[in-house]
Amino acid sequence: MPRPYILYGWHLSYFTGKAMCYLRYKQTPFVQKPVNMLTLLWRIKNKTGAAVMPVLVTPQGEWINDTSRIIDHIEAQTPNPSVHPATPVQRFASYLMEAWGDEWWVPMAMHTRWTYPENFALFEREAGDALLPCWPGFAKKRAVKVVAKTLRSMLPAVGVRPSQLGVMDAWMAHMLDVLDRHFAEHQFLFGDRPMLGDFGLVGAMYGHLGRDPWPARELVGPRPHLRAWIQRMSAPEHAQLPAGSQGLLPNDQIAPTLLPVFQAISREFLPLLEGILTQVHAECPHWPVGKPLPRRLDDVTVPMGQGEFSRAALPYSLWMAQRTLDVYHGMNASDQAKVRHWLTELGAERLLALNLPRLRMHGVRVAIDSPAVCVTAS
To answer: How far is CA 244 from the centre of its chain?
Structure first.
């Protein structure tokens, strides 16, 4: 019998939820192991270059960090059932939703966790048991305080700032209503099977909004269809196609109920990518090729709902944009035209014109991989 995969991660973790739900859907044999202090700060860091979670260890002993790379690995090994739609617009939209879920929702999840003190008891208990499983309670609490202090120190950089909480709350209330209406009509984002976009979105919804006491009660609880989708995503291997369903919406359709989501991506997320790219272009002329860019750059201010939102620019977000655009560039001319037409209707065609330097991942950072692009973009 082949050795199972090992997934190192906490249920509390944003991206562990994404990886866990995906592996369950693929029915990939895996063992989930909590990340203790030694594993996080020594084994994972030595193997991947960063103290991060989740990390997937393959039966061959390869250590893979980053959920997008984990998904790519499993898809290559086990292509069926695929989480990538076969038709061009749905396929591109699914990758775009993954990028949006991974990058845009992090401030929302961190806000709902750390703004409301009642959430800390769950974090303290689960993180303490994971970090120091055989240690006395006082040691666990001390370790958790260190981790919590580190995470709280990141709040201003991702945009969780007192002056912006009202804008974030209003945006979340609206967007969660939109998603609740969508899931009232559809099992998943693109029909009756979860796709890559679903797994991107579930990161915020599983570990944070769906499990932390305050958001689970105040945000998810009043929205039963959203709550049901989170439950389906928690055990997607049991998802059953309704009688007569082909799995996804026919004729490469995007459900009209998702139109407000993609309009928000065009109006808000695309300007964020453009703002980050402007700063990366400014670094290009004097930044050595292959050297990881800083984890964060200066602030970017973008629309959010009826207001504005500022956060530090993360060059990693451009790697997710590159991942999405690679899908487009790999299509034939006819399929590219369909994607371009769909984006034009959204007012987001300029996404295809992003002049990205070629990036490669380096731990949790990215490095510029092409000096020629840096010269032309400067």
So the answer is: 32
How is residue 219 annotated by DSSP? I
Domains of the chain: 5-77 (3.40.30.10), 98-113+161-237 (1.20.1050.10), 119-158 (no CATH), 260-377 (no CATH)
Residue range 344-372, pLDDT digits in tens:
999 999 999 999 999 999 888 999 987 65
Cβ atoms within 10 Å of 300's Cβ, excluding its own? 22
What stretch of H or E contains 69? helix 67-77
pLDDT digit string, tens, across residues 8-63? 999 889 999 999 999 999 999 999 998 998 898 899 999 998 889 999 999 999 99
C-beta of residue 358 within 8 angstroms of C-beta of residue 370: yes
Nearest residue to 16 (alpha-carbon basis) of 251, 206, 192: 206
What is the rounded CA–CA span in Å between residue 20 and residue 34?
A: 12
Contact (CB, 8 A) for 81 and 188: no
Tokens for 234? 């928690």
Contact of 256 with 337, CB cutoff 8 Å: no
Tokens 């300029």: give the residue: 350
* Spatial separation of the C-alpha atoms in residues 224 and 228, rounded to whole Å: 6
Q: What is the DSSP letter of 237?
A: G
